[in-house]
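2024-03-11 09:14:02 INFO worker-7 job=invfold-0412 stage=load source=structure_tokens
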């Protein structure tokens, strides 16, 4: 696996009943490079935190998501009594290494090798505090290797369903006529 440098923070929608555009990017591609169908699907359970760096704006999110396909596997790890669900591609990622990295990020106050901070430590410690910026971060998409991890079960299940739909569409397109 490559070193991790870019991790997109994910938040639950501010208003799940009336979700808005889940991207908070200053520039780059429309919808961060995701098509409208995917945007409509994910906006009910996810919004993307503004990362403050151009590397996140020019198609890195869809590229990171595509790295999980077509073989998305699930795992979990418990950190500080909190279950963290993991999505990864076993063909391209090593789950032991992923668990190791998540543990490291969860116990560091400052993630020195990353372009932007995960705030995983604060997110777990401040869980339940609705006023906390860090507690609002409930998922992460690692863009260099293409794996995801979540403290929010609803967001995790939403992405599982998204990948199932993507794989189903791919199978239907590859069926002989």
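2024-03-11 09:14:09 INFO worker-7 stage=emit residues=177
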């Amino acid at each position: 696996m490559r070193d991790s440098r870019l991790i997109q923070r994910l938040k639950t929608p501010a208003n799940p009943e009336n979700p808005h555009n889940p991207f908070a990017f200053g520039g780059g591609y429309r919808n961060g490079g995701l098509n409208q169908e995917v945007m409509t699907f994910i906006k009910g359970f996810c919004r993307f935190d503004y990362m403050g760096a151009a590397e996140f704006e020019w198609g890195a999110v869809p590229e990171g998501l595509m790295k999980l396909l077509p073989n998305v596997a699930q795992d979990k790890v418990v950190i500080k009594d909190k279950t963290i669900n993991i999505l990864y591609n076993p063909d391209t990622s090593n789950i032991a290494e992923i668990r190791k990295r998540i543990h490291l990020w969860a116990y560091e106050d400052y993630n020195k090798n990353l372009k932007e901070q995960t705030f995983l430590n604060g997110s777990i410690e401040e869980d339940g505090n609705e006023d906390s910026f860090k507690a609002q971060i409930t998922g992460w998409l690692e863009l260099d290797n293409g794996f995801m991890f979540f403290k929010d079960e609803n967001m995790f299940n939403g992405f599982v369903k998204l990948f199932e739909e993507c794989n189903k569409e791919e199978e239907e397109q590859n069926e002989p006529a």
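2024-03-11 09:14:09 INFO worker-7 stage=report msg="The CA atoms of residues 59 and 98 lie 23 Å apart."
2024-03-11 09:14:10 INFO worker-7 job finished
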